[in-house]
Prior knowledge:
It is a single chain. By secondary structure, this protein is α+β, with helices and mostly antiparallel strands. It has a domain at about 50-140 and about 195-215: 2-Layer Sandwich (Alpha-Beta Plaits). The chain is about 35% helix and about 40% strand. It has four helices and eight strands; from the N terminus they run αββαββαβαβββ. The chain has helices at about 5-30, 60-80, 120-130, 145-175; strands spanning about 35-45, 50-60, 85-100, 105-115, 135-140, 180-190, 195-200, 220-230. The chain has a five-stranded antiparallel beta sheet. Strands 1-8-6 form a three-stranded antiparallel beta sheet. The two termini are about 50 Å apart.
Amino acid sequence: MNKIALIFCALLTLSTLLLNSATAHEKESHYDRINLSVSETAKIDNDIMVVILYAVEEGSDAAKLAKLVNKRIRDGLNVVKKYDKIKHQTNAYSSNPVYSNNKIKGWRVRQSLRLESKDMALLSDILGKLQSNLALQSMQFTVSPDSKNAQDQILIDSALERFEERALQVVKKLRRNNYKIVNLNISTSGISGIRPQYQMRAMSLESSNSAPAVSAGEQTLTVTVNGSIELE
């Protein structure tokens, strides 16, 4: 056997030994592992109000309808822009044919306006002013990112404390000396987008200009800590 072949055999033998050693170590490292999972929940008040209003017109002249819809949305924006506390955004614009007996008899033009604010009393009052010109499609409530993050921090601290208490309980019950954390995962849930508290049929354009009553409600946040500990 030449020198190259001998070196190759030696390397192959060494690789096999290292692989067996790593496998044995891996099996050993999983010895006396315990999986734990704890969760903490809390109620949090919705502090953001979101409403969708829209203008719609039907008739035979699509261009004329578009001008009417644009004016109504523009008039609504002119009212809203006076208030810095209200965020505004125009949404989908559509122009669709209206059929009768499989023939186009006219057009329907529609555009919506999204309003958002933490000042719910102010936004409710503005809605009362806009309802004479725009229809109310939906009223929804959610939690602001700042409020959620602050509550998440509290829940994470609490969940980690409970995880540690659970781990120490296991150590004590199984008469071990201590433990070490092998892996740890922290997940949060809740506030998956905007959660509607009110979803209503569009209010008539002839509705009263009085402000609608609002109740923001609350949501549940959950933090889960799960991981593995190794007993010593």
